[in-house]
Amino acid sequence: MKRSDLKNAKRIIIKLGTNTILSDEGINFTKLDRLAYVCASLIQEGKEVVIVSSGAIGVGSMELNEANYPTTIADQQAASAVGQTLLMGHYSRFFKYYGVNVGQILLTRDVVDYPQSLQNVQVAMDTLLRRKIVPIINENDAVAVEELNHQTKFGDNDTLSAIVAKIIEADLLVILSDVDGLYDSNPQQNPNAQLIDQVSEITDEIQQMAMGKGSEFSTGGMATKLNAAEVIFTTDSSLVITSGSDPSIIFDILKGESIGTFFHRKGDK
Ligand code: GLU
Predict the structure, then answer these.
(1) Domains, the chain
(2) What is the number of the ligand 1 atom nearest to the C-alpha of 218?
């Protein structure tokens, strides 16, 4: 799909990173409210919206008054168990205000390995979407410890969101992040860093641009976003990585505006 065709995207996944939802003060409620408004508007226009949300471990850590992101897997499991339910409560409340129901789906890696599990996820997602309910997806961090381990699994919600895009044949994945997109060098260190408008192949040069990790309460960084892009390139979906500071940026993306970095397969340009 070209940028100018994004207005036709029907099935849209919005992925929010921990830093997009949380600030030092806690959950950014203004942003959740804005997001709920955007999603409700899109649904009214006939689109289907799925959210992939991080933040369980971050919200849980704050609730438990932890000063830092938990370092042991066991503490991450505990924090996610506490945080996931709080997070969903907030999503449910804000979306309901705009007349939209949400449904929680927690995924583990095995869904893609077992045809029956995969089909179960597809049926659940299709049914929620047909009924105009917004599925809110996260990894099942409390039990899927390989996922927290970052060894054999989705690894992070960036990759997870791309796998979900593949599973449900989404038209567009928007990753809302604390950066504006992919830069040719680190914008925090280089004031002349340039935002890359479009990418259709993950070359060594692109990999170099994405070195480094996310910040304290996140697991990602640009490297995991490129993993997501690699998955997207195997599908008919497109991907936009952009800033999550105001979720209404999604309206502009759907107008085809040059926002963030647009990942599309070669030839789709
Ligand atoms: N699933 C983790 C959480 O909800 C986050 C994983 C990620 O940051 O990508 O806290």
Answers:
(1) 3-263 (3.40.1160.10)
(2) 8
